[in-house]
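User: Okay, second chain of the day. Same drill as before: sequence in, structure tokens out.
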Amino acid sequence: MPADASSFHRKWGHLARPHVRALAWLLDSPDLLDPHSPHWQGRIATLGPVSPAVANWLADLDADPSPLDAALGNRFYSRLGLYAEKLMAFYFAAHGTLAAHGLQVRDGRNGTIGEFDFLLREEGREGLRHIEFATKFYLLDGDPDTGNYNRLVGPNLADTLGLKMRKIFQSQLQLSRHPAAQQLVPAPVVSAQALVKGWLFYHAAEAAPRIEGISPDHCRGHWRTVGEQAGASDEQFIVMPRLQWLAPLRTPVERKEDAPTPAPLARQALLDVLAEKFATDPNPVMVATVREEGGWLEEVERGFVVPDDWRARAQARRRDGDLPA
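Assistant: Same drill. Structure tokens below.
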């Protein structure tokens, strides 16, 4: 069965702090890519099930988040990927496996060659494991073209899953072979894999297909145009801030003035917000459908709302060579 918001709420509903919930989702959510698929030739990493000890550690962290808050610092994270990386670095460090995070490899003549996301030590294993980490959100536009993955498109029409994985495999996972990297790392790198978390979004009127190489139980949502959203029957929606895109949303019904999560909107109010936003900015908006549960507003499902011409703009970018066909 695919992952859904209700199963996350059941398992992790005792966690109240957004940073801890995001970390729990990173650790426990299904992999976006199937590590067992022959398509990836063993190059996809998986964290495996969360152990009872890690679950207890997360509960303790929710009770006292000061170590995590200190690790994140006071900076504002504008990039969701960097925020997710910092959460994972904190986890690896806390569990004694982190050898390096964000280790840049430079060549005196050519500048920066690349960067190791994570170098990990593993018990009973000599050498280091290189993990290239990504948290991605893609919308399916058309047939899934298994093997290419170029119809899984970023919401801002700037990349595809196919482009991302080719970059990871052909460049980033090869970094340890560079002479400059071999002189820099604290121990030999004996394996290199990609760890990919995220959500895929399918058109609300189309059935989600089975795609070879994608985990069968991956996290999924829908996408709709603004015109289609006008016909949605749900009653309460929250426009999701980017840093809250990881875990299913859960926010108190009684909001504080400085709450990081916007207030819920009725359908017409949401449409008004979208119309104003899309008048100047065509980038899709992540919207959660929420319901009240025990003093909390909990995400029921999520989806991107896109401008009515989003699909036509995707086709134009393919025609112009800005996206692969």
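The radius of gyration is 20 Å.

User: Thanks, on to the next one.
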